[in-house]
Amino acid sequence: MNKNPPHLAAFEPVSVSQYDDVVTKMLASYQNFGGLNNSDSLNLPSKHAIGEICEKLLQLLFPGFHDNDVVHDGSLSDLTSRRLTDVIVRLEDQVRKSVRVGNSRRPTGKTGPIIQKFCKALHIVREILVTDIEAAYNNDPSARSHEEIILSYPFIEAISIQRLAHRLYRAGAPMIPRMMTEWAHGRTGIDIHPGASIGAHFFIDHGTGVVIGETCKIGNHCKIYHGVTLGARTFVKDGSGHVIKGLKRHPNLGDNVTVYPNSTILGGETTIGSNSTIGANVFLMHSVPADTLVIYEEKSLSILTKTNRPSSDLDWSI
Length: 318
Prior knowledge:
The protein has a five-stranded parallel β-sheet with strand order 1-4-7-10-13. A five-stranded parallel β-sheet has the order 3-6-9-12-14. The chain has a four-stranded parallel β-sheet with strand order 2-5-8-11, with no helix packed on it. The longest helix is centred in the N-terminal third of the chain and has 24 residues, at 76-99. Helix content is 38%, strand content 10%. The chain has two domains: 47-189, serine acetyltransferase, domain 1 (Orthogonal Bundle); 196-311, UDP N-Acetylglucosamine Acyltransferase, domain 1. It has nine helices and 14 strands. The model has no long low-confidence stretch (mean pLDDT 89). It has helices at residues 6-9, 20-32, 47-61, 76-99, 111-120, 122-139, 146-152, 154-171, 176-188; strands at residues 191-192, 197-198, 203-205, 211-212, 217-218, 223-225, 229-231, 252-253, 258-259, 264-266, 271-272, 277-278, 283-284, 293-294.
């Protein structure tokens, strides 16, 4: 008597030989369409390794907040030294691969200086993050403590990784900074390019759907909400129709600027003057002076009672 469930009774083991033609066609695809595969792991940084490095860096920035075990003051010195050494070894390997992408395996001499510049800036990044945490606490009435912000606000994770990646970006590390911020983007829903320059006391409330482009410059004490895009308006092309890289494409925000949810500000020539407020759902492609309020005025909004409505009103029942 067959005791297997009906859906398993007719199951037959897969014969690999049945799919020899699939393997053959995939190998042909590898040969014909280069750039989608790389058979030499020495030539490419690892996404998995970058994710682990980001985790290790968060432990360095916030000891005890990203740990399973208690961190005691007496062990902090040795622990910090070990963690820094671990990060350096891991990051050197990935940076070395990134600077050799498309080149030979010969040493470039770039990895050492990049790592040194990055490590010397770690304490500076941490000092700036203190101001970001203060901004979150002072601007969000639901925040009960700094500890709550560090542990639960996705913005802190996103801006921490971005500020670290920005230092590698400035030091000349290719690929790695973008991989770091995309790691944070995947975890938080906040997309900040490592090239963006962001001042102190920065706060993103909620954060989901925020996009900040590569050439953005954001002043001190700025606050933006979920769904805000600071993006490019157009892409300048050369005579062959190729997009020209490296041009200023994204807007600037002065000091003390607030941008409310779902607003879009575009263009490299667009500057929002200091102490200005951009209301919700605004679409803006030109500069505004300091001390300006920009709002979207509703053209048609009806607010009706749910009782004694005229029969001609729409039936919203499902």
